[in-house]
Write a structure and sequence with these properties.
Blueprint lengths: L5 H5 L5 H13 L1 H5 L12 H7 L9 H25 L9 H9 L11 H16 L9 H17 L6 H12 L4 H24 L3 H6 L16 H24 L5 H19 L16 H14 L3 H20 L1
Helix pairs in contact: 2-5, 2-6, 5-6, 5-7, 6-14, 7-8, 8-10, 9-10, 9-13, 12-14, 12-15, 13-14
Length: 331
């Protein structure tokens, strides 16, 4: 018996949970303060922009401030994804579970807890999800798809592998809409508009050779093996276990759900797969890339915790996840 249980508390839609979310985030990032790199200066833009601005990095921000800024941004993202999930009623009822699970997953690895271009791109990911979940409501979506194409292009200027989310836009059309070639063209036209304007700037400064180099990552060979530390595998075990529980819960409730909910989870699966396979587009491969996969996984895990009925079990599962994260941060 739990007198005060985390999951049950966040199942309630109460402003108090915003404070509790902040406290949870602070606890989950304590480990990174024990292992702060001395020279923590992330680069915020891809060469497409950095060719003109130089490699902008927050040289005047201390590592401690870096982590705290990341925490604030992550809390804000958690509240945004919480709003989206509740707005489209993806998990049955309004709660703060999406925010809690997003915050938890965004603390999974130490590289997640410092400023990075991927963290910035997750704002765009959540914004895209909010728009994509709404396309079934509109009779005319060509302007929406054009806007989404531009969002993907802007994201790729911050972090080039984000370019694969252009495929997510087509996936959403397959899932939610009957075929309309104009809608399919609107997204790449929006994407191309941003790069066309960028190309004009490069042409103006007579630097077209550098503009062509932006696209070199698309020629990278797909790796046949990936080196991940054994401890990274271990911290993923509770996540994989919860996802298995999610699939079992989804299977039980799938045909009771409205069609839009089923299609939304298909879209989330596509987003997860694209986030995972796009890592090879980054020459400086880092585990922080997988922060892109956090939004869809957080929503899926929310679904399980929202429908789970055996209180001692689902509370224990969440506590196990948190303790695993904290253990591997400190040891």
């Amino acid at each position: 018996h739990y007198n005060c249980s985390v999951i049950n508390q966040f199942r309630k839609y109460t402003p108090l949970n915003i404070l509790l979310l902040s406290v949870t985030g602070l606890v989950l990032c304590l480990g990174v303060f024990m292992h702060l790199p001395r020279n923590l200066m992330p680069v915020f833009f891809e060469p497409a922009i950095a060719n003109f601005t130089g490699k902008l990095s927050p040289e005047n921000i201390t590592p401690q401030a870096n982590v705290l800024i990341t925490l604030v941004l992550t809390i804000f993202q958690a509240l945004l994804i919480n709003r989206t999930v509740n707005r489209f009623n993806l998990v049955g009822r309004s709660s703060f579970l999406p925010a809690l699970l997003y915050m938890t997953l965004a603390s999974l690895f130490l590289p997640f807890l410092v400023l990075s271009p991927i963290l910035i791109c997750n704002f765009l990911s959540i914004w895209m999800l909010d728009k994509l979940f709404s396309i079934y409501r509109h009779a005319e979506i060509k302007p929406l798809m054009f806007d989404l194409g531009m969002i993907v292009a802007l994201g790729s200027l911050v972090y080039f592998p984000f370019i694969v989310m252009l495929l997510l836009l087509w996936c959403s059309l397959i899932i939610f809409r009957p075929f309309n070639w104009r809608e399919w063209l609107a997204a790449p036209i929006g994407f191309a508009t941003v790069y066309f304007l960028l190309g004009v700037v490069y042409l103006w400064f007579d630097r077209m050779a550098e503009f062509y180099e932006i696209w070199l990552p698309l020629a990278y060979p797909f790796p046949t093996s990936v080196h991940i530390d054994i401890y990274d595998y271990l911290v993923l075990l509770p996540v994989i276990f919860i996802l298995v529980l999610f699939f079992l819960s989804l299977r039980q409730n799938l045909f009771k759900s409205v069609v839009h909910i089923r299609k939304s989870f298909q879209l989330l699966f596509c987003m997860f797969m694209l986030a995972v396979v796009s890592f090879y587009l980054n020459a400086d491969w880092s585990i922080s890339h997988f922060l892109l996969a956090v939004p869809p996984i957080a929503i899926c895990m929310t679904y399980y915790f929202n429908y789970a009925t055996t209180r001692w079990f689902y509370e224990s599962v969440y506590v196990l996840l948190v303790l695993t994260i904290i253990y591997f941060q400190f040891f």
